Amino acid sequence: MNKLRSYGIVTGSYWAFMLTDGALRMLVLLYFNKHGYSPLTLAFLFLFYEFFGMVTNLLGGWLAQGKGLKFTLIMGLSIQPIALIALSFMNDSWGPSLTIPFVMIIQAVSGISKDLTKMSSKTAVKFLVPEDKSSSLFKWVSLLTGSKNTIKGLGFFVGGFLLQALGFRFGLWILAGIIVFVLILSLTSLPESIGETKSKIKFKKLFDISRPLKLLSGARVFLFAARDIWFVVALPVYFSSIFSWSHSQVGGFMALWVIGYGVIQAFAPVILKFWTRGEAPAGLAASNVSGLLVLTMTAIALLFGLNIQPAWSITIGLVIFGIIFALNSSVHSFLVLDYAQGNKAASNVGFYYMANATGRLIGTLMSGLLFQFGGILWALTGSAIFLIISFIITRRLR
Questions:
Q1: Degrees, nearest 5: CA angle 29-266-331
Q2: Distance (Å, rounded) from C-alpha 4 to C-alpha 10?
Q3: What residues form the membrane-spanning segments (predicted)?
């Protein structure tokens, strides 16, 4: 019962954080797009967010190894309200030379907060499930990851709504209040011992990980770069500028996509059980689902490039892509915990999510570059190329 209660608190904390994280992303993206910033500039606003996420995952895993996961979780939750309130002091009278660096720095702080919380929450699941229960681990991590993405999708809608209804500053204050409440709950309710190990790992040993985990991390870089190439800047700006959608409409579509993606992730064990015969997935499952992603994105890019019902091609195509991507991501999220060594679990998971943040960093930059110079088609094509690379790496897990 204590483990179930701890899982509930960890999951609730992660939910609240991802709600504010999704809302913050949509607030910043739509606010600056409204003020005429180019797609490439919009991408730069998120670069520090992703870069410091890379650093945080690596160092956070090492820190959690010695201090425990509650320490890093509380640290992550404590930093986010500071970032949100600080960003609310941005002034519309500032020029781009001041505004852009200021927002990049605040986004860096938010990125540190996000990845401390993410690494802590996901690693905690491994310590709350018995080591010999791989199928149970797959179910619990799928539920955590899927529900998190559903909540983050809701955050996209909340961000668009807050911007339209209350404005930039008041929206940020509301989000900060949510996190402060959850911080107090986590601080007073979680046991101190989650994730603590008797053996401390030296910093130079952080890269001493197994070959399967290295391959999985390499595939993750290109998998998430492929998603963010079209997701971060290209698609929201495309909808806003080409379709003339309002903030709420853009946020609503992005929200529905991520919510659906999260639901599929949560039910991945049920969907994949016929493929894996009821067992937890292995490298073969990751390879097969990765191949389906390549075919799907290639078809979307071809249909759009040939001007065959472009609006339907991109919207319906990306819904299908989201379903397959969710299954692939769920398999990855399980495998990283399965591959992680018990006494080095936090540092192993931190290394893996450093690779995840690297992919997001590359995808964010490429999203702005490709969309600015080649439109949405270049972004979709770039995504397909990155998925092919991810598939080639994933095949070696077999």
A1: 90
A2: 10
A3: 12-32, 44-64, 71-90, 96-113, 149-166, 172-194, 215-239, 251-272, 284-306, 312-337, 349-370, 376-394
pTM: 0.73
- Alpha-carbon distance of 126 to 124, in angstroms, equals 5
pLDDT band with cut points at 50, 70 and 90 for residue 196: low
Question: Over 50: is that where the pLDDT of 1 sits?
Answer: no
10 Å Cβ neighbour count for 165? 11
Contact between 303 and 265 under an 8 Å Cβ cutoff? The reply is no
The amino acid at 349: V
* Ranges of each domain in the chain: 2-190+210-395
SS (H, E, C) 80-118: HHHHHHHHCCCCCCCCHHHHHHHHHHHHHHHHHHHHHHH
d(CA 285, CA 283): 5
Pick the CATH number of 2-190+210-395 from 1.10.490.10, 3.90.1150.10, 1.20.1250.20, 2.40.180.10: 1.20.1250.20
